[in-house]
Amino acid sequence: MPPRPPAAVTPIAFVRAIAQGYARRGQDPAGALAAAQIPPGWLDQPQARITATQMEKVSEHAMRELDDEALGWFHRRLPWGSYGMLARASISAPTLGVALKRWCRHHGLLTDDIALRLEVDGPHADITLEERVDLGELREFCQVSVLRNVLGLASWLIDSRLPLHGAAFRGPAPAHADVYRVLFPAPVSFDAPLTRVRLDARYLQLPLRRDEQALRQMLQHALPLMVQPYRRDRLLVARARQLLLTQPLQAHSAESLAALLHVSARTLHRQLHEQGHSLQGLKDAVRRDLAIDLLLRTRQPIKQVAQAAGYHSEKSFIRAFRGWTGRTPADFRRAGHGYTAPAIHHTQGEST
């Protein structure tokens, strides 16, 4: 069976924005369109779509021909290699959070047309994009490209997918709003006062896994980071465990848990296996830790602890608990005064 051709999901509006960048410089985009095998007539067809590979080729040709990695968004060019310079300034950071702060700060040295910031608020981290001049018709393409750029580099730096909790954009929803589910797989809103993407702040603590040699190799073919999704997720186990603990009803099956994690059930099982875990093993570990926490920190009857841990039968809970600890729940509670219980964040309605 022949391989399935790549899906054409990138809206022609992004190519039209590149053509507008050429127009601002008084140049012809014909060469860039030809390099990506995009018929010029498609620019007048709002419903036309191209593949990620075509988008990569037209973007690279235009950046080199215009000598502008910003493709005309800003008042002054960002010469070829500008974003590589930002990457070099970030590669020595100890953690992703430090690297992103450097990236945002140094981006302001290239242009003051927009301002990028990393803001952390408890469990959330926002990368915001403030428009300091009117970007006009190039606003959407600029917003999408800059944010995809920084997210792609961040994922590469930690060798991990960087899941989003949400994304918001200035301006009305475009006719091709459906593509945002691919570009920013999270709840997306439009007409927002400020453009931003929201991340899990735990990823900011991950150490960088790349060095200068890897950076040199990546920069030879960097654009796929902007248009291709990153698959590996180094905090998948921690995120899955937290959802099993805090949203047990919504995460009761592989399919429902995968949906909360914005991956397929197949991807969930594969990545857990690659990291030496199984979904059933995670469920058992969460049940065990929750049961131990309730036994040591509350006076709830054993039957209620069993129910809170997800067991309908007290007998099956006692049998499972003996397998975990070698003791019955009652014996464990009596002897547990010197035991350090795992840190548990209770779900709403639990006793403390």
Q: Unreliable segments (pLDDT under 50, ≥5 consecutive)? A: 337-352
What's the overall average pLDDT, rounded? 87
Distance between the ends: 58 Å
Number of structural domains: 4
- DSSP helical segment count: 16
Shape: elongated
How many strands, which pairing sense, and closed or not: the largest β-sheet?
5 strands, mixed
Structural class, from helix and strand content?
alpha+beta
- Cα Rg: 25 Å
Percent range for β-strand residues: 5-15%
Number of strands: 7
Q: Estimate the helix proportion, in percent.
A: 40-55%
What does this structure look like?
- This protein has 352 residues and is an alpha+beta fold.
- The chain has 4 domains: 1-66, no CATH class; 80-227, no CATH class; 236-277; 280-338, Homeodomain-like (Arc Repressor Mutant, subunit A).
- Helix content is 48%, strand content 10%.
- It has 16 helices and 7 strands.
- The protein has helices at residues 12-24, 30-35, 52-66, 82-90, 96-110, 139-158, 180-183, 212-219, 224-227, 236-246, 254-261, 265-274, 279-297, 302-308, 314-325, 329-335, and strands at 8-11, 49-51, 114-121, 124-131, 164-168, 188-189, 195-200.
- The strands form 2 sheets. Strands 3-4-7-5-6 form a 5-stranded mixed beta sheet, with helices on one face. Strands 1-2 form a two-stranded antiparallel sheet.
- Helix 10 (236-246) crosses helix 13 (279-297).
- 30% of the residues are buried.
- The model is unreliable at 337-352 (pLDDT under 50).
